């Protein structure tokens, strides 16, 4: 299998999407950081371990893992997005962290080594594979026997008010859009926990646990939150079809999210699965 299997995703994350995440990485990292940290807490990286960060993006999680394994450990971050990896490679490191390595590679097909890593981690980086069974089989091969897997993925779209509410507020002003294929590569491809369990089992993982986790995310002011919704997520995609309605949509979205404004910025409910498993 070659990277051609994920050609559409590679193109997507090296074009507008990759540039958007690279430009807005501070706000995006702040928004989803609590979800990654909870997953990392459960994975429990130990000093001296070797960790694989799948879909590492702009590298915030890779650096956090590097701090946890310390100078005796090693961390490899892999991603298909060159713009995001450029940000990752420029990140400052805590003084006691190991120097992480970053590699532009597709975790579905790249040679990640055999029985190299003590654990694999991902913060929203595993829902975009064209063949998830093949991808997780490849990741499992890179883990040591009984190596740990821990990742976080979105629960169903209706449960994620932070994404749903802006689009619902804007929908009366926008052209209708066709419903997405729930199993196609994308943010909600792993919303069905039984599908996730089946994928991991077929890929050779055992002791699979899939736990719901709920919290509030965000932290930006109202204008920044609207700007982000226009660039990332379902509202951004819908606006591409009706760009002339942007000012009216902005007012509708502001009104919808204002009740969630706090002294710490706009904080809205997010719903995820935290998935853990063992290789073998």
Could you explain the architecture of this structure?
The chain is α/β, with parallel strands linked by helices and 280 residues long. It is 40% helix and 23% strand. The protein is built from 11 helices and 8 strands. Strands 1, 2, 3, 4, 5, 6, 7 and 8 form an 8-stranded mixed beta sheet that branches. Helix 7 (161-170) packs across helix 11. It is globular, with a radius of gyration of 19 Å. The protein starts with 6 loop residues before the first helix and ends with a strand.
Report the sheet with the most strands, covering strand number, pairing sense and barrel closure.
8 strands, mixed
Content-based structural category: alpha/beta
| Net shape | globular
Q: How confident is the prediction overall: mean pLDDT? A: 94
Q: From the alpha-carbon coordinates, what is the Rg to the nearest angstrom?
A: 19 Å
What's the order of the H and E elements? HHHEHEHEEHEHHEHHHEE
Distance between the termini: 22 Å
Number of strands: 8
SS element count, helices:
11
How big a fraction of the residues is strand?
A: 15-25%
Helix fraction, binned, reads 25-40%
Task: Note poorly predicted spans.
Answer: none
What's a concise summary of this model?
The chain has helices spanning 7-13, 16-23, 25-43, 60-69, 82-89, 132-142, 161-170, 193-202, 222-231, 234-239, 246-257, and strands at residues 50-54, 74-79, 101-104, 117-123, 143-154, 205-218, 261-262, 265-279. With 280 residues, the chain is an alpha/beta fold.
């Amino acid at each position: 299998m070659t990277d051609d299997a994920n050609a559409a995703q590679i193109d997507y994350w090296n074009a507008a999407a990759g540039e958007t995440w690279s430009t807005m990485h501070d706000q995006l990292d702040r928004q989803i950081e609590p979800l990654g940290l909870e997953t990392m807490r459960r994975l429990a990286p130990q000093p001296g371990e070797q960790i694989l960060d799948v879909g590492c993006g702009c590298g915030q999680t890779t650096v956090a893992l590097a701090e946890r394994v310390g100078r005796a450990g090693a961390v490899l971050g892999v991603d298909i997005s060159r713009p995001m990896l450029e940000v990752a490679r420029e990140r400052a490191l805590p003084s006691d962290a190991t120097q992480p390595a970053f590699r532009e590679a597709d975790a579905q097909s790249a040679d990640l080594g055999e029985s190299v890593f003590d654990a694999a981690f991902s913060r929203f980086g595993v829902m975009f594979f064209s063949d998830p069974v093949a991808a997780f089989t490849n990741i499992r091969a890179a883990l040591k026997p009984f190596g740990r897997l821990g990742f976080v993925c979105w629960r169903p779209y209706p449960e994620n008010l932070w994404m749903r509410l802006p689009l619902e507020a804007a929908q009366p002003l926008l052209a209708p859009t066709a419903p997405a294929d729930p199993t196609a590569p994308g943010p909600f491809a792993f919303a069905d926990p039984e599908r996730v369990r089946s994928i991991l089992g077929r890929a050779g993982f055992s002791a699979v646990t899939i736990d719901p986790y709920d919290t509030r995310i965000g932290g930006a002011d109202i204008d920044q939150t609207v700007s982000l919704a226009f660039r990332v997520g379902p509202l951004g995609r819908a606006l591409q079809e009706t760009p002339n309605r942007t000012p009216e949509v902005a007012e509708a979205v502001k009104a919808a999210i204002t009740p969630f404004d706090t002294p710490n910025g706009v904080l809205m409910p997010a719903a995820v699965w935290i998935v853990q498993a063992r290789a073998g």
